[in-house]
Specification:
Elements lengths: L4 H15 L7 H8 L3 H13 L3 E4 L5 E4 L8 H8 L23 H17 L3 H4 L3 H7 L5
Antiparallel strand pairs: 1-2
């Protein structure tokens, strides 16, 4: 399974903000740290804000910050919320077409694999992902 770029960028935004200890940052700052388009990040930040992961404010003293502590942000939840389609194969879809759909064992194996994948991600929070704080901050060009 491959995550979409949108989900990847969502996780990167959360990691960056998790390293900032609730300090507000701009989309430009995150864009420059990762070398990602600001326009694309604006869409990511907008959805993360609507989903309750971020607090975004405009004007003086504005910027974006985490809306809840890193230990409360479960990585599997982010993946589920950001991915618009976790159907690994067509037969997972209600209207999916396949001649062997009713008796296919492949869909059972793939469904179990997807469940195991998400169950593993359920064990990790943003707090886990930002443990190598100093090295992550250095890689992102953050000042202490």
């Amino acid at each position: 399974m491959k995550l979409t770029r949108f989900t990847d960028y969502s996780l990167r935004v959360l990691i960056y903000l998790g390293l900032r200890d609730n300090g507000r940052v701009t989309i430009r700052e995150i864009s420059e740290a990762y070398g990602i388009s600001r326009n694309h990040l604006m869409k990511v930040v907008s959805l993360l804000t609507r989903m309750g992961y971020l607090d975004a404010r405009r004007g003086p003293g504005g910027g974006i910050a985490l809306a809840k502590p890193p230990k409360e942000i479960v990585i599997a939840d982010v993946v589920r919320d950001m991915e618009d389609d976790l159907n690994l194969v067509e037969c997972f879809c209600v209207d999916g077409q396949c001649a062997i759909k009713p008796m296919c064992e492949l869909k059972i194996a793939l469904r179990q694999a997807l469940e195991a994948y998400l169950k593993t991600l359920d064990r990790f929070t943003l707090s886990d992902l930002i443990k190598p704080r100093a090295r992550l901050a250095e890689a992102l060009g953050m000042t202490a």
